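RESIDUES AND SHAPES:
===
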Amino acid sequence: MTSTYAAGGGLFGLVPLIIIFPLLGLLTNLLLGRRMGARFVGVVAWLAVVPSFGVAVTQLVALLAQP
């Protein structure tokens, strides 16, 4: 028996975001970091990592809910 989550739908469809958020932060910092300064780079890095962590925790909860 296959689950909707195991088939790639549901919450497990968010897995690529774990990589995409930090990559977007990296690209933003590479393109705008020198012009905006160290504080901007730190904020962008933080804003890239926190949602990635949130998605990872969501994936953990979804995995633990599976039989």
About this structure: The first helix runs from residue 17 to 36. DSSP finds two helices and no strands in the chain. Helices lie at 17-36, 38-65. The two ends are 11 Å apart (CA to CA).
